[in-house]
Amino acid sequence: MSEYAYISTIGQDSHAFAETGEGPIKLCGVDIPFDRAFRANSDGDVALHAITNAISGYTGVNILGGAADKICLEQGIKDSTVYLAEALKYMEGAEIIHCSMTIECLRPKLKEFIPSMKEKTGQLLGIPASSVGITATTGEGLTGFGRGEGVQVFVILTIKKEL
User: Fold this and answer.
1) pLDDT digits (tens, 9 = 90+) for 120-129
2) Comparing C-alpha atoms, which of 50, 56, 119, 118 is closest to residue 80?
3) Which residues, 6+ apart, have CB-to-CB distance to 11 below 8 Å?
4) What angle do CA 149, 56, 34 make, to 5 degrees?
5) Close Cβ partners of 32 (under 8 Å, ≥ 6 residues apart)
6) N or C end of the chain: which has fewer CB within 10 A?
């Protein structure tokens, strides 16, 4: 009988909105209609960046600021799903079994997009959409994100690893 360890890891990312340029913006690989774009070198998908950072917290391999910079700046690939796929390569047999995400922003309003965001995240991580939790908050306007200046995402992943 196999024994398993269950490990939790956290990731965070944030992007401000650009002063000019229209959206849509991407969250969890889903296009969200919006009147502004993210200020970012990539597509600015803060949700996928936070997941990628959480995976890096488990593997110890920094993708954002490392491999993703080369992929984005040298190869011109701006799609954050590519950076996430790169991070997943270092999991060494461990598997993600749950993803919990909190998104802080005043706008855009995300409620109607959450089901498709859960579905896409599940597809990218190889888990059912029912194993992806997404909440959205304005944080009562206490930060720049809650005042409409950008989007911040925190992610906790639960990882199952055979001992």
Assistant:
1) 999 999 999 9
2) 50
3) 49, 50, 51, 52, 53, 54, 55, 56, 57, 154, 155, 157
4) 25
5) 23, 24, 25, 26, 108, 110, 113
6) N
The span from the CA of 99 to the CA of 159, in Å, is 9
Both tokens of 97, joined, read 């079994």
**pLDDT given for residue 69 in this prediction:** 78
Q: What is the pLDDT of residues 104-141, one digit of tens each?
A: 999 999 999 999 999 999 999 999 999 999 999 999 99
Strands 132-137 and 95-104: parallel
Using N-to-C axis directions, what is the helix angle for 46-59 and 114-125, rounded to 10°? 30
What's the mean pLDDT in 7-12?
98
Per-residue pLDDT averaged across 150-161, rounded? 98
